[in-house]
Amino acid sequence: MTTDTFPDELRGLISQDDLREVVKQGHIRTVMTVVPDMLGRLKGKRAAGLALFERLDEGDGVRVGEACSYILTANAHMEALPGFDLTSWHDGFHDMGVNADWTSARVLPHMPDLALVHCDAVDTDGAPIEVAPRQMLRRQMERLSELGYEPKVAWESEFVLYNGDQPVVNRNGDYDLDHPPRLGDVLGHLEGALPDAGIEVEAFKQEGAPGQVEATFPKSGVMLACDNFTVFKHVVKHMARRHGLTASFMAAPVTGVASGLHLNLSLWHDEQPLFAMPSPRALPTETMGYSIAGLIAAVPHLMPLFAGNTNAYKRYALPHAFAPQFANWGPDNRGCAIRVAGHGTSSRLEIRLAGADANPYLVAAASLAAIAHGLDEKLAVPSPCLGDGYGSDAFTPLPRDLAEALTGFRHGVMARDLLGLPIVAHYGRAAQVEIDEQHREVTDVERRRFALA
Length: 453
Description:
This protein is α+β, with helices and mostly antiparallel strands and 453 residues long. The protein has two domains: 8-129, Ubiquitin-like (UB roll) (Roll), CATH 3.10.20; 138-438, Glutamine synthetase/guanido kinase, catalytic domain (Creatine Kinase, Chain A, domain 2, 2-Layer Sandwich). Helix content is 34%, strand content 21%. The protein is built from 13 helices and 19 strands. The chain has helices at 16-24, 49-58, 133-146, 181-196, 222-242, 286-298, 303-306, 312-317, 360-377, 402-411, 414-419, 421-440, 444-450; strands at 30-36, 42-48, 63-68, 95-100, 106-107, 114-122, 150-163, 166-167, 203-206, 212-216, 220-221, 246-248, 261-269, 272-273, 326-327, 329-331, 338-341, 348-351, 396-397. The strands form three sheets. Strands 7, 8, 9, 10, 11, 12, 13, 14, 16, 17 and 18 form an eleven-stranded mixed sheet that branches. Strands 1, 2, 3, 4, 5 and 6 form a six-stranded mixed sheet that branches. Strand 17 (338-341) and strand 18 form a beta hairpin. Helix 3 (133-146) packs parallel to helix 9, helix 6 packs across helix 9 and helix 10 (402-411) packs antiparallel against helix 12.
């Protein structure tokens, strides 16, 4: 099957009933049932479509299978790690249930005969597993809803395309439109494939580092935006491989290069924008002020959710690399952690903390938790940064490395109060695993500097 033969009305997001029908008609043979892991990667199985719907008809219409619960504890290399309460060698890495969220089902016409549905991890009693990234985000969305707010978000994602170990563009191509053929081909194919998968990208642009690309997305509901982003990464990597390239979403893929994942966020009530201002340099609305204050107060204590590995902190170490070094905010100031951007109904907070490799569900959950804290406590907005965001001692510095971030996350009261002790313990353990691994590794930097000492 090709995209030319697939029914036009059944591209992108699709209802459960319509998916059942196209499976029955033979347009779709395989349904990927996916659960986002701690790194935001899609993990799961390729289920035969007909057999899947037969099982659903015999069950509750939601449970699409089981999976080893180590999906929610494994590191980048999918190693079975000890020390997690959820599962470990103490219980033999038991299974968890996988329940489909049918509002997320979509077809992927660029991949023949294939559909995808995001799923939620549940325990043996069918209760949500609280440390699962989608469930963490859902809890924070519910918290804001209880306060009377609806968040809308949009991502900006940077990644680098490599041909072997060399970037596909060998210079700063920021805002260039004269793309070399291989880059132009990849972008053209992405612009065709992503809408077919139900993902709207407002724009692609070349960025400042060699081979670096930025994609910007329109605002939407939070869960949809996160689900879409995980599929976006999946499609980008797939398309890059088709062209003999590699797409890297590392926060610092090489020394001197920083790739970010920016979260643009606004709050609404009864379809009315609560951040609307005539310009980014106007005084923040009351709701925006509380939100800024909550973020400034909380994010230094939540950094393992924005940057969960040791490489991510190398992005912050680069001077004037458009990655923040302080918990500060400013009007239209790209040197700050929180940038006030837009005007009118597009007024928003651009949260610039996360690296490109961050888990979007965790970034959004941490940001919403911090904002809810500011709204609930009616925190006073601190003074803005009106100059160089990298050059002031008036603001709280962000953690310099993962070890420092982990100390504040584990031992401070902020993360426990906003997220709960089980989540702090779980993601604290994940961060400790990364630190321990780095302590054991002998790096090329050490060999280069000390081999002849």
